[in-house]
Amino acid sequence: MGFSLAPTAIAAGYRIEAHDSVGSTNALALERGAAGDPGRLWIVSKKQESGRGRRGRAWATPEGNLAATLLLTEAFDLKLAATLGFVAGLALADALDAVVPDLHFAVAVDGGTAGGNGGRLGDRFELKWPNDVLASGSKLAGILLESTLLPGNRAALAVGIGVNVVAYPEGVPYPATSLKALGFAGDAETLFLALSDAWAQNIAVWREGAGLSEVRRRWLSRAAGLGSEVAVRVDGNVIRGIFETIDEDCRFVIRSGGDKVVIAAGDVHFGAIASAGAA
């Protein structure tokens, strides 16, 4: 089976460009945007040679995993466009629920104890601020938004989604897993079909930002570590507290020493890793 779009995605005007292997789906999407592509283009591959994550970190996509980037070209308010990462997280979590509906696991975020504040028993994939999807407390997927300016006050926005379908990285400073390790016998094509459908549904909720409050509500219902101890590394400093919520702009909010601290960007650690110093 090759990559294909769900009927809902086709009806909404989305297109697809599939590759056996690619350097970076995000880089290729931005190239397409700069060359005049009108957007709503999914670029997908099961192998990525030079993928990247947040802060320039490498993101490996060995054969059989999913690398997917959606190119959007609009007159974006880039601050508002940044919230599309939360739409992507919801879409991916919905797609995962659809393709592995019988998967049950104990969620223990970053080495926390399942069933306590740092984790709970459940059958859902969880979202870790700002851009990860977790399963069994381990990183299953990452999301990366990148943009470039276009003529006419427009921008090309690449919404990159990488999922560990058959393999996950080892020797990394955080727990990681794959769908295969969790018992999923399907493939990247099956997951992408569900993802293209779930994106079409969730972007309809977002409605160019008019539905952001509903996106925020849905995201919080899946939030990993809500109410638990957290350590956030911001520009080399570590801020500790309790994960309280995300605000109206989807910024991370913690309660630290009685004060509310709002964080726009940082690396978040829960549970045992938070206690150990968020190394």
3D architecture notes:
- It is a single chain.
- With 279 residues, this protein is an alpha+beta fold.
- 25% of the residues lie in helices and 31% in strands.
- It has helices at 7-11, 25-34, 78-81, 84-99, 188-206, 212-221, 271-276, and strands at residues 15-19, 41-45, 66-74, 105-108, 119-122, 126-128, 132-135, 138-150, 154-163, 229-234, 237-246, 252-256, 259-263, 267-270.
- The strands form three sheets. It has a seven-stranded mixed sheet, sandwiched between helices.
- A hairpin with a 3-residue loop joins β8 and β9 (154-163).
- α4 (84-99) crosses α5 (188-206) and α4 packs across α6 (212-221).
- The longest helix has 19 residues, at 188-206.
